[in-house]
Structures are given as structure tokens and as C-alpha cells.
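Hi team,

Filling in the usual template for the complex we talked about on Friday. All components are listed, including any nucleic acid strands or ligand strings, so the model treats them as one assembly.

SUBMITTER: L.P.
PURPOSE: interface mapping
COMPONENTS: four
RESIDUES: 666
SEQUENCES:
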Amino acid sequence: MKSVTLKDVAKAAGVSYATVSRALSGSPQIGSDTRERIIKLCDEMGYTTNYVARSMVMKKTDLIGLVVPSIDNQFMSELAYYAEMSARAHGYNIMLCNSGPDLKQEKTVVKILLGRQVDGILIVPQSPKTYENIKAYTDQVPTVFVSENLRDQPQSYVAADNSRGTYIGTKYLYDLGHRDILYFGRRHSTTHQLRAEGYMKACQELGLKQRFYNSEYSRSSIAHGYEMAKELFSHPIDYTAVFASTDSNALGLLKAADEMHISIPDQLSLIGFDNISATSLPRLELTTIEQPKRNMAIQAVDMLRDKIENGTQGYVHQILLPTLIKRSTCRAL
Amino acid sequence: MKSVTLKDVAKAAGVSYATVSRALSGSPQIGSDTRERIIKLCDEMGYTTNYVARSMVMKKTDLIGLVVPSIDNQFMSELAYYAEMSARAHGYNIMLCNSGPDLKQEKTVVKILLGRQVDGILIVPQSPKTYENIKAYTDQVPTVFVSENLRDQPQSYVAADNSRGTYIGTKYLYDLGHRDILYFGRRHSTTHQLRAEGYMKACQELGLKQRFYNSEYSRSSIAHGYEMAKELFSHPIDYTAVFASTDSNALGLLKAADEMHISIPDQLSLIGFDNISATSLPRLELTTIEQPKRNMAIQAVDMLRDKIENGTQGYVHQILLPTLIKRSTCRAL
DNA sequence: TCAGGAGTCGCAAACGTTTCCACTTTTTTG
DNA sequence: CAAAAAAGTGGAAACGTTTGCGACTCCTGA
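RESULT (copied from the run log):
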């Protein structure tokens, strides 16, 4: 269990441990013969440099804190995957924290991460209030937000262009011949407000009537989409397509439609948003708008690295374009 | 960016920094009046203890390395969720690594984790060869494996009782009246061998004929399940139920069945394994065997903590019972 | 022969903690 | 009331590394 230190290999090599350190770090001020000898010896003795000691003197941990509401969520786990890959490729490691159900938890984990001396924090906010919640810490360490739109805040973030996503989607529906399109789902939270706006903008441009259906406290879940849709379908259906603010809600609506024998897409076209993995499943095949998760993750760690390594001040808002994924829940009229 | 240290608050409080350290750590050998004064001061000055310095002297990082083939995977992200929660509740943080596509990557990240001085490692193996692959490191740090069955290896692990899972499932099918049950999918890798064994045992006890269908290099994916199933259905269907070794494969089979107008469950009952989240989706509703992921995660970190904190030697094999989730792809004959 | 420079290498400080030991002050006890 | 015990505090070492600076060796050229 006792690991071998610099001092150990120094002793074995008959040099000072400064020399060993330099040999490993590729310092130019060292003989190439001794360097090789030492490197070989390190290998034999199974020496690996102790990162916590190193961090101590370098005042840099090469650690990035990743805080997500809960990693057990398609969007976030996918994001985490690419973030970790990209970070590691650049010599960083990821410290993972679930910011749990409430803001208190979120603040706690950020505090922990600070104590751990992470070089930067990547956070996907759990609510629009997150910014205020951790404001006190974001100036102590480079931070970039992912996926929640902080528009007016002086904070770096990368996000999908939600507004453009719904715009593209309704345009697609229009081109398919639909003239009565219902927007279904959440409208509060910045993200969902933007999605609604994209729909509204498209309607305006195309001369369509804007029609919304949502309950005040709607959440993005299949169960809730189902409940909402059952309520919705109890009224006459005087629209030919619905744009769900979220894939989960769309899936819930799908379930309700099945039960009520409303055929999708024959009677009703349906389009969602997020491209969660479930949408590509057999029997589902939901047409949707994809958030470019891979790019978001990569851009986010790039931004963070820039802040860390170059000390870049200020902030940048990186907006990525979503794309339409055509599957089989929409049909031409 | 410059954070406040022990020395800073010591100066402000007019005491030595040993005293401040003691006040914070709740040492008994300190006056309760000075303790309160110091704690209040720390709060005001926004002091948080530097964990890397602390780790240095304590020779303990309170860090657990979590290595998974890829976090963007239902099973693993869910596992990671519970593991992180449980770990943090006990004062540990999680360092996340994807062990990537190959064994080389897996070895690399384990090495990194060792350099980071993690107190322990939680690893879900990417292949049966994982054990051999990282053998050299597992005796340098407490390690527990998750979900791959290392039966004969002197290594701690927690896993679902795969064999029992398939046993329960086929028994269920039998009780429903099925007498011709086909086992569909992978059979190599320890896990899947065990699953196959459970099916075989049930068949033996119940006097059923064992029937297998699989391709040599089958993987657990919907696409592959689909391909296999198309091939399968090109032969006459002289069985009334199929047990898929994996939910993903089951879903692929479902898709093929739909295309060939084979009705499930009317013509064919279907049962999967894993209870991935997709199985509970509308239109799918796959009957399956659930791995108790939450329990697995919690047990795993408990085992690891025991090794870390109590220096427990030896190894334990923790086998958890899977449960049958009845949904709508099975019907009584 | 020797000054001086290039090329190597060692010494020691520093990073921010925790904790052992010693020391001072206060309290208890005989 | 003196001595011993207890309580509270400070000094300093230690953890394993990086790196500035000084020192040493060796060689070149005058």
C-alpha cells in the first residue's frame, strides 16, 4: 500500500530527487543519459507521480468539477460522457457531483468543489435560480454554465439555440402543409420561454394562429405529458399538429393518444424537442429537435480551459444550432 | 482568486494556526469560547479548508475513483447517480472516468486514478478481461467491481444474481402456460453465461426443452437484436415465448416482430433483462428482470468504505436478487 | 595555465494542512 | 497552601512535489 516516492527512486538512482523530478518533467537542463536511466528506473519501480503533492506546489489541480442536477438523466449523462473524454484528452480529470433536488444541495456541492481546489467548474443549472444561488462562488473559480440560458447574466455559457429549434420545427410542419399547430408544454424557465418564442416567431412569419396548451406547473416528464394530454384530448381537436416543448411530454402525449385511439401521425402530427435516446426506439420513432450535446460538451470544456489556462476574463455566450431529426410522427397533409 | 488560508484567519484571530485547525476539526482540547470566536471568524472571512493540503498530510483524499465503460449508458449513469449520492453522504467525492472503448484506455484511467491518490476504486468492467488487465493495480488500492461476475477471482464485487433472474423469468413464463421457450441473445461473457444457466436450470426442473438462438459475436444493442431477430423469424416459429438476454436485444426483436406482423404478446410472449428505462415507455411496456441498481451502488460503496476505513482484507462477493417486472409483453396461454 | 562559459546537478524553500510535543496557565486535590 | 493534574495554546515537523539559485565539472580558447 505504501507507494514509491521521488525520494525512493532518487536513492536508487544515486541522484537527488530534484533531478528525478526534472527527468520526468522533461526539463532541458539535464543529461540525456541520466534522464533515460532515471525514466527506466521509474518504470521498473512502478513510480507514478503523486498528484496531490504536485497540485500543492503547482497551485493547480487539473481538476474540473462537473455538477449536474442528476447524472441519471439522458441529456446529462451524454454530456458528461463527452465532457470527461474531452477534459481527459487535455490532461484534466472530472469530479462529479449531483446537485440533487434542491438549491441548497447545489450550493453545497459547489462549496465542496471549491474546497477541493478544482481549476474550474462546469455546471448545468438545476433551475433558473441557480445563477443567483452560486453567484458568491463563481468569481472565485472559472465557471461555465451549460444548457440553461442566462441571457442577461455576465456569465459564460454554452446552450442550444432553443428558439431557433422550435422555429425550424414549426417551419417544417408548415412545409408539410400544417396550418393549425398547437404548442404543448412548459413555458416558464428561460429555456422554455425561448422555445415558445421560436414557435411564436414562426407563426408570425407564416401567418399562423398561435395556440398554446400548458398547465402552470408542468414539468418535463412522460407522466405529466400524459396527464396534460388526456385533459387536452377531452376537448375537440381542431389542430393538425402539435409541437411538444419536450420529448418527454411528447411521449406522454403519444401514450394518451394511443389510449384514445387518436392516430399519430395519421390524425395528428407530433414533434418533440431534445432528441433523448428514447425517441429513436422502435414503435416510438419520434420526430424531434436535437440538441448538439457532443458539441456542447466539447465547447464547454474548451471555454473552461481557455479561462483556466489563459486567465481569460469576461464572458462568452456560445449558442449552438439544433437540428431537425425527421422520424415518423409527422406526415404531410 | 487568492483564497484565504489558515494562516490568514490565525493572524486575524491572534492565535496560532494550529489553534484554528483544532477549532475547525472539533478537537476537544480547545476552549469553547475561542472555538466559537474562531468559527465565526472563519465564516466571516469565507475560509474553506484546502483539501489538497489536507490530503497531503492525512494521506487520505476522501476520493473514490469511479470507472465505467461509458457513463452515457442507462445502467451506468443510474449506478453512478446512486454511488455519488451515497459516497458524498459519507464524505467522499467521485472522480469519474470513462474506460473508453478498449482495455488500454481502461488501464490508463486506473493509472491516473492511482496518481490522484484516490482512496478506492469502483469499477464496472468493460469486458471479462478487465480483471487481468488491471490486476497490477488492484492490490495497490481498495477496489470493488460492479456487475460483472468474477466468480473465481479473489476480488470483491457486487453483482445481480443473473442466473436467478433468468430462472425467475422462465418460471414465470411456465406458470403462464408456456412450454416452448426460446432463449435469445448473448451467451459469452460471464454475466451472460450465468443468465443462460438460469434458464437452463429452470428448463431442467420444469421438464422443458432448452432452445437457444444467438450469433457468436452478438452484442447488447437494439440494432443487433433487430438483425438477429429478422434472421430468427425467417424460420418457422415453433415456440410461444422468448427470453431475451438483454432488454436492448428484446427491443430489437420487438421491432423485427412488428415489421413481420408477429403480434407480441398475442402470438409471442417476450421478456427481457435489465429493466433499462426504455422498457417502461408507452408502446413498449416490456416485461423484464430488474437489476437492483440502487442497491448495487450503495452496497458497492459500503464495501469500498469498509475496505478503506477498516482496512478490511480479503474479498466478498455480494450477490443481489433481481426482481420480475411484469408489464405487457407476456400473456397467459 | 587559467578565466570563463556551458552543461549538470544538488540544496532548500515553498505549498497549506494536521498533529505531536512542550510549555504555560488554571484547576483540583491532599 | 503546595503540589499535581488538567486544560489550553504555540512551535515545528511532516506530507511529496517543483523550481530558483548556487555549485560543481569539464571543456574551450587565449
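MY TAKE: Chain A touches chain B through 54 residues (CB under 8 Å). Residues 5-7, 17-18, 21-22, 25, 27, 49-58 of chain A lie near DNA strand D (CB under 10 Å from a C1').

Thanks, L.
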